[in-house]
Design a protein that fits this description.
heterodimer, A: about 350 residues, mainly alpha, two-stranded antiparallel sheet, two-stranded antiparallel ribbon, B: about 425 residues
């Protein structure tokens, strides 16, 4: 009763008829591949978890080389439920990147990027890159030994970029080496710059999805054109409640991981300490890291690392431009070569990630 | 000891630097003739002196020690009386030949300004020097240890007096029963020849040769080098105390310092100083205390009390460590407690030092601080394990609640689907 009164009160002042209409009319297509639709909602949920836990961590975190490690240690050992917030933030971040990758690959294989959804794809890929930037910058913030040396290696890779490499390294590190200046730089990026950009890109991504509705696979669309209607389910409540189920399951998984496998804090970073054994980046950079390590120092007279970085940059650009490169999908036709490229890319990504773990 | 050794090494390192600049080729009539002689005892000195030799590298030649005329190409002219040719110095003369330069501060300043010039005086006070003065030519002189013609800096690892080689150099005589025959201890017993073999079983030898700790003692660190002599029973504590200062201070305040004739050696031995352990104290048969004390005397009670306190501390540290490991393995943050346990272990080490006062109260005072640390660590680890159980309980409750909600949602969704005709 109170809820209805509030809605009526709001309706009188801001006219909710448009929203009511949207909620009542919005539907989601039902077909064999609809399970992949939940990945987007799941990524959104995990992002919101990141925002909430990130804000709570901000209350105690201190972004300086002398206090960062101690403040995280204080959070996990002394602050009430600080351990839970930090572990949820760390595990949720990793699940978010995993789900974002699954979301990207499912969108790719279902050709959901095809006209008229090119902008949704572009904003989605941009969001994935933003999540990777969140991961890279956040990894350093506890200022522990592994993160320190992994960041040193990770930022050093940028030095392989021709012409502007040295500038990029100095720009990222705030100097020649990874120091407290790098930490404050990464902190500003992690809690201000990236969230601001993400908010805008995410809003655009969600707006485009609501405006254009869910894409259906080419085969389903073809059958619809041949007269087989696509079943629809109401967005509210049928789809929303399904989304909610996924969110709850994700929450249970994060809670279990946080208790069962708490994120280790390790030793405080020490620039003068010997490089510890087994330094490696987060799992989502491991495939790239391993590939760069395996490249010969020179290929056809050019620096191997430089060619590697250029190759990754080209792949990133190609992924961004997929909707414009895949003209067959735009015409509603299957594109088997692209599917093969996608499968090979996925297998290589998984294989090099596993190899990176084994090699370390 | 260590600082003297460092100083000596620095001096000789400076000399080595000068050597490079002042190196002279050994071109003289002496070398020309001797190098061509078939008999090894005449040819070897020329060959050795022509190799690495600290004196030749600084411009000294054969005639500086042996006299003669190096320019002469004829043997008779080279060794004519007018050339003050001395030939091979006798053992007694060796010290005089060396000390002509090495005891001359003004002369030595030109080559090694920081090097001591009292070696000959020290040697004269040594057992070697005193016996040499009585005509015993079997004792060591300068050349016995340093060599004669291929003399290397002490800092040179191939020098016979480099720390790692000292024991072997001394053993050439002291481990040779034939050479040592006739030498006796003050009490008249034959001088043993097992010192180096015993030393090689010691913790000092292990530190020197296995841990490569050049400050670890070898023969000359306790006996002196140029002034080599047994330390004497009354001086043992001082000798050991040059390195083990805290132990010496504690021991000096103890009742045992008035009772033990041979100081530290009574419990730790001399050449075969073994790794100390807690079993050395106490009242059991294998403890050293039980060798003198028996049930009923105050020393026996004190030894038992100190051992019990130390064992208690060790047990407390082991128990705390296990508890902390359990909490850490469960994922709890225990680095502060791990650090505190290191501090508790430091107190155990301090207590082992305090044992040298032979005062149970002093040992107990140190250990009580360590036990306070382990008690605090145990409380923190127990609280961490309690917290860990709370987390698991919370996780199980949360997951059950979430699963119930998910199941409820599942049935709700099925019902909604049926209502919308999406499910039969």
């Amino acid at each position: 009763m109170a809820g209805r009164a509030i809605v009526a009160w709001l309706d009188e002042r801001v006219d909710l008829s448009g929203l009511r209409h949207f909620v009542a009319e919005k539907t989601v297509p039902v077909h064999a591949h609809k399970v992949w639709y939940y990945m987007g909602g799941l990524a959104l949920f995990l992002f919101l978890v990141q925002v909430a836990t990130g804000i709570l961590l901000l209350l105690y975190y201190r972004p300086s080389a002398s206090e960062a490690y101690e403040s995280v240690k204080f959070i996990v050992s002394t602050v009430e439920f600080g351990w839970l917030i930090r572990n949820v933030h760390s595990w949720s971040a990793n699940l978010l990147v995993l789900i974002a990758f699954i979301h990207l690959f499912s969108t790719f294989f279902l050709r959901a990027y095809r006209r008229p959804r090119e902008l949704t794809w572009l904003s989605g890929v941009a969001l994935l890159f933003l999540m990777l930037a969140f991961g890279f910058s956040g990894y350093l913030l506890p200022w522990n030994e592994l993160a320190f040396f992994a960041t040193k290696v990770g930022t050093g890779v940028a030095g392989a970029v021709p012409v502007v490499g040295d500038f990029l390294v100095r720009f990222m590190r705030g100097g020649d080496e990874v120091t407290g200046a790098t930490l404050t730089r990464f902190y500003g990026l992690h809690v201000a710059v990236l969230p601001a950009i993400t908010t805008v890109v995410l809003a655009l991504h969600l707006l485009l999805i609501q405006r254009q509705g869910m894409s259906v696979p080419i085969g389903v669309e073809k059958r619809a054109r041949e007269g087989v209607p696509i079943a629809q389910m109401p967005f509210f409540p049928n789809y929303v409640l399904r989304d909610l189920m996924w969110w709850f399951i994700a929450l249970a998984i994060i809670a279990a991981l946080s208790v069962f496998s708490p994120w280790e804090l390790g030793q405080k970073a020490d620039a003068f300490a010997p490089v510890p054994a087994g330094i490696r980046p987060e799992w989502y950079f491991l495939a790239m890291f391993q590939l760069l390590k395996m490249l010969p120092s020179h290929i056809l007279g050019l620096e191997g690392e430089m060619l590697g970085v250029l190759g990754f940059s080209l792949i990133a650009v190609a992924v961004l431009l997929v909707p414009f490169l895949d003209t067959r999908a735009a015409r509603g036709e299957p594109n088997r070569p692209l599917t093969v490229i996608g499968i090979v890319g996925l297998i290589l990504f998984i294989a090099f990630t596993i190899y990176g773990y084994v090699a370390a | 000891m260590a600082s003297f050794k460092r100083t000596l090494l620095v001096v000789l390192a400076v000399m080595a630097g000068a050597a490079a600049a002042a190196a002279q080729p050994a071109t003289s009539g002496c070398v020309t003739c001797h190098a061509g002689l078939a008999e090894a005892r005449y040819a070897a000195p020329a060959a050795d002196f022509g190799g690495t030799d600290v004196h030749r590298e600084r411009g000294f030649t054969c005639v500086d020690c042996h006299g003669g005329d190096a320019r002469a190409t004829d043997k008779a002219l080279a060794k004519a009386p007018a050339t003050l040719y001395r030939g091979k110095p006798s053992p007694q003369a060796v010290v005089a030949v060396c000390s002509r330069c090495h005891s001359d501060a003004a002369f030595m300043r030109k080559f090694a300004p920081r090097q001591r010039v009292d070696q000959a005086v020290e040697f004269a006070a040594s057992v070697h020097g005193q016996r040499l003065a009585t005509g015993d030519t079997a004792v060591a002189t300068c050349t016995s240890c340093h060599g004669a013609h291929g003399i290397r800096l002490v800092s040179d690892a191939r020098s016979p007096v480099f720390p790692l080689n000292v024991a072997g150099t001394c053993a050439r005589c002291h481990a040779d029963p034939a050479h040592m025959k006739g030498y006796t201890l003050p009490g008249g017993e034959p001088l043993p020849t097992t010192q180096v073999a015993d030393y090689e079983t010691s913790v000092h030898f292990a530190a020197l040769t296995k841990a490569n700790d050049l400050s670890a003692p070898t023969c000359n660190d306790c006996h002196g080098n140029h002034g080599a002599a047994p330390p004497g029973a009354g001086s043992v504590v001082n000798v050991c105390g040059t390195c083990h200062t805290v132990f010496a201070t504690k021991f000096a305040l103890s009742t045992h310092s008035q009772i033990f004739d041979r100081g530290c050696v009574e419990c730790h031995g001399n050449h075969a100083v073994l790794e100390p352990s807690d079993t050395m104290i106490g009242t059991s048969g294998d403890s050293l205390c039980a060798g003198c004390h028996s049930d009923g005397d105050s020393g026996f009670a004190a030894a038992g009390a100190m051992r019990r306190e130390i064992d208690r501390m060790k047990a407390a540290i082991d128990a705390s460590r296990a508890l902390v490991a359990r909490a850490a393995n469960a994922g709890m943050e225990m680095s502060d407690q791990e650090l505190a346990l290191r501090e508790a272990f430091n107190h155990l080490t301090l207590a082992r030092t305090e044992v040298h006062t032979f005062d149970p109260a002093a040992v107990s005072a140190v250990l009580s601080k360590g036990l306070a640390i382990t008690t605090a660590v145990d409380q923190a680890a127990t609280a961490a394990l309690e917290e860990w159980r709370f987390r698991w309980t919370g996780l199980v409750a949360s997951v059950i609640a979430i699963l119930v909600t998910v199941v409820a949602l599942f049935f709700k969704v099925r019902a909604l689907d049926r209502d919308h005709g999406l499910r039969a």
